[in-house]
Write a structure and sequence with these properties.
mainly alpha; 3 helices; 78% helix
């Protein structure tokens, strides 16, 4: 049970690395700081809605 769990975690981390690389390439192509993508939100904080 240990090894299948670790394999899944490794694959998830590899996928995350690919997504981050693509985000970095996209930011460079569009001419903005990649930090903008890392700090942006899709929706406002629930506490700031009301």
């Amino acid at each position: 049970m240990y090894y299948p769990t670790i394999r899944g975690c490794i694959q998830a981390l590899k996928n995350l690395e690919i997504w981050l690389d693509k985000a970095e390439q996209h930011a460079a192509a569009k001419g903005f700081d990649v930090g903008v993508l890392l700090t942006s939100r899709l929706a406002p904080e629930p506490s700031s809605i009301s």
